[in-house]
Amino acid sequence: MSKYGVMVMGPAGAGKSTFCASLITHLQLNRRSAFYVNLDPAAETFEHTPDLDIKDLISLEDVMEEMKLGPNGGLIYCFEFLMENLDWLTEGLDSLTEEYLIVIDMPGQIELYTHIPILPRLVRFLTQPGALDVRLCAAYLLESTFIIDRAKYFAGSLSAMSAMIMLEVPHINILSKMDLVKGQIKKKELKRFITPDTSLLEDDPANPKKRADVDMEAAYSAEPMNKDAMMSGASFQRLNTAVAGLLENFSMVSFLKLDCTDEDSVGAILSYIDDCIQYHEAQEPREMVDEEADMEE
Ligand SMILES: Nc1nc2c(ncn2[C@@H]2O[C@H](COP(=O)(O)OP(=O)(O)OP(=O)(O)O)[C@@H](O)[C@H]2O)c(=O)[nH]1
Ligand SMILES: [Mg+2]
């Protein structure tokens, strides 16, 4: 019997835990079963108490103190420890039926999603047929305020693509906190950020080529004079163009929009997740389940 789940990932502060909480509330309101797994050993407060919490296995505080590690090294240590104690996950998840949506809240350290091979191993373990066999969807959150700074938006999109390629499970990318940009940017303009491509750099306000008030000779001259100039200099623009071109060529990243304060928005994302993992195909018709329960009584 398969299980169904979503792994919520993304950089620090992207809104992962808030999304997990809104998703669980939405599932509960719709009479669906959720199982909340917290894999962030640094998380302290929760809107919904986790059903399974990595802190019961290992504490980041203890690791930092005993191993003399900083928060990032400590987190990697915690994940390595988790990988050596996967029975803990098996025991926690084994009895779940296909009715449940397992919601996994991940930490925000970007190292986890880029160059350390722990996550692919964890995902392979969770999805392994014949074992836990979780049909897993990865949801990668990026904060929508990033779109104001094109360079940040492309860097974030690149990390989303890197996670996508690394994990090899159905994947959705989400621009979170849409309520923060809705009033500030026109709808038509917002639409352009659904799929990252090089055209977004053509009218980048930070691109000196596009700014009449910038002395072009100076902007493209050899050495930047200060940090701001460095972030808008010619080599930086070339780098951004290359990154944007890469994203366009791969044509893998596109974003769904999420506003956690809006129930419909959370519901729409849940529909995408359900489709990705074919959740509904595995469910018995609800009426039949209810009837059977009535007959047994
Ligand atoms: N306006 C608005 N704020 C949000 C939204 N989602 C999250 N936030 C805020 O963003 C901040 C970070 O949210 P979290 O959910 O803790 O983010 P996270 O990705 O879990 O953070 P880490 O676990 O530390 O990486 C909090 O102050 C939230 O209240 C949203 O949809 N709209
Ligand atoms: Mg969090």
Automatic annotation (TrEMBL):
One annotated GO molecular function: GTP binding
Pfam family, one: ATP_bind_1
InterPro entries: Gpn (IPR004130), Gpn3 (IPR030228), P-loop_NTPase (IPR027417)
Domain of life of the source: Eukaryota
CDD domains linked: GPN3
Keyword terms, alphabetized: GTP-binding, Hydrolase, Nucleotide-binding
Similarity comment text for this entry: Belongs to the GPN-loop GTPase family.
Summary of subunit composition and partner proteins: Binds to RNA polymerase II (RNAPII).
Function of the protein: Small GTPase required for proper nuclear import of RNA polymerase II and III (RNAPII and RNAPIII). May act at an RNAP assembly step prior to nuclear import.
Record protein name field: GPN-loop GTPase 3
